[in-house]
Write a structure and sequence with these properties.
Blueprint (H helix, E strand, L loop, with lengths): L1 H5 L7 H8 L3 H7 L3 H16 L10 H14 L1 H9 L4 H18 L1 H4 L4 H14 L2 H9 L5 H28 L10
Helix pairs in contact: 2-3, 4-7, 5-11, 7-9, 9-11, 10-11
Length: 183
């Protein structure tokens, strides 16, 4: 993680870690046999260092995103480095998978009445809102203060979930049309 903080543009590879640590590359490969394993370990370490926690219920989403964005602020240098670091490309796969699972669980009552495509889109938007790149865009492009970014993310969740619930209600009310058989 020190390597990522100090040189975010550098490539974090088995060999680079070995060189930096003064150990043989074979030792690094023994612990992390593939780039995927290395990316998973980087993600786990980053998740722990930044206090990343996923919501477990629908009611938990707005407070969780506020808390998560506060953690992004607390670890701003590291979070910003992780967004641009080539080494962290693999971590996004791991974080996204965890996020999708968490939002599928926390929004199960909403998604059960949506089509599979609508459910996938809702979950994808939620994962995007809950992300460091979304936080960074609110802060940098949106020119929002830390508090405003937290509130904007919570408001975005409220709007997206409210719209999904409205679509689910309409979908539930629509009768299924069956073609009548003609004699």
């Amino acid at each position: 993680m020190r390597m990522l903080r100090e040189e975010p543009a550098s490539t974090v590879s088995h060999e680079a870690i070995a060189d930096r640590s003064g150990i043989a590359a074979r030792t690094v490969y023994r612990h992390f046999p593939t780039r995927g394993h290395l990316g998973g370990a980087l993600w786990a370490r980053m998740r722990d260092e930044t206090g990343t926690r996923w919501p477990t219920t629908e009611a938990d989403i707005a407070p969780s995103v506020r808390a998560q964005f506060a953690q992004f602020e607390k670890h701003e240098t590291f979070v910003r480095a992780s967004i641009v670091a080539p080494a962290m490309a693999d971590y996004r796969v791991h974080g996204s998978a965890e996020g999708r699972a968490a939002f599928q669980q926390s929004l199960a009552a909403v998604t059960r009445d949506l089509s599979p495509a609508e459910s996938r889109r809702l979950i994808a938007v939620c994962v995007a809102i809950y992300s460091a790149p979304f936080w960074q865009m609110l802060r940098d492009r949106g020119k929002l203060s830390a508090e405003e970014a937290r509130q904007a993310a919570a408001s975005a969740f409220e709007a997206v979930i409210s719209a999904a619930k409205a679509r689910a209600r309409v979908r539930k009310r629509k009768p299924t049309r069956h073609k009548e058989k003609r004699p």
